[in-house]
Amino acid sequence: MSIALRHITLAYGDRRLLEDVSADFAPQTLTALIGRNGTGKSTLLRAIAGLGPVAGGSVELCGRPLAELPPRQRAGTVGFVTTDKVRIANLPCRDVVALGRAPYTDWIGRMQAADRAAVDRALELVGMSAFARKTMDRMSDGECQRVMIARALAQDTPVILLDEPTAFLDLPNRYELASLLRRLARDEGKCILFSTHDLDIALSLCDAVALIDTPSLHLLPAGAMARSGLIERLFAGESARFDPETRTVKLR
Ligand SMILES: Nc1ncnc2c1ncn2[C@@H]1O[C@H](COP(=O)(O)OP(=O)(O)OP(=O)(O)O)[C@@H](O)[C@H]1O
């Protein structure tokens, strides 16, 4: 398995977000991580990336405990794309994407031919080759998001995590980005896990959906998730309700 959660508990102080959660995420799958605000989606992604603490249990990446992976191997196993808007003036896209090669370059970050080829291929995979020399302070949110995904692709990791990658995008760009992630999972064999509030994208474009229902996590194929009754529970008592027939959210 690309990602294996083994009885993990995530907590801030006394507040438990997840308790004794186990789940397996396979290669070549795109999984959406959904849940209400503040239920711990970012916290879980950060824990899987080794950027945040786990209160109990363990995370395994590609069969090895995350805690035992030295930093360089960790960086060669999991890539993380955050919601942070990266707008570095004067730094061309190509150089931003090249940062993804850090785990493979020497101590002064010198790029070899293979590194340059990986950067070119990453830009090509996200359809941003024409932007290689442009700087990100002159690009749209959708274009910047693609460049950050290219950076993660240049990192050449079997696992890619993204925290709300569609957050700043308009509707067509949301679908386009999710389709890109789906293609990368299928064609490049990546295990991609991303958090989102886009229920429709989660159910229509992803292979699987992981739903945080505090303190549990339910992981199901997208179709099974839509029929499971778990999403209705997510909206229980709210002004909106989920209709499993049409897979849409409607006002009560
Ligand atoms: N460093 C921290 N210390 C203490 N509490 C934190 C910390 N970071 C997050 N929290 C709290 O933990 C809970 C989960 O936060 P997290 O950001 O993981 O949720 P989320 O599901 O990603 O939320 P959203 O959908 O709003 O982005 C929230 O209640 C948040 O306030």
UniProtKB/TrEMBL annotation:
Keyword presence, Iron: no
Pfam families: ABC_tran
Annotated SUPFAM superfamilies: P-loop containing nucleoside triphosphate hydrolases (SSF52540)
Keywords, comma-separated and alphabetical: ATP-binding, Nucleotide-binding
Provenance organism: Alistipes dispar
Location of the ABC transporter domain: 3-247
Organism lineage string: Bacteria, Pseudomonadati, Bacteroidota, Bacteroidia, Bacteroidales
Gene Ontology molecular-function annotations: ATP binding; ATP hydrolysis activity
Official protein name in the record: ABC transporter ATP-binding protein
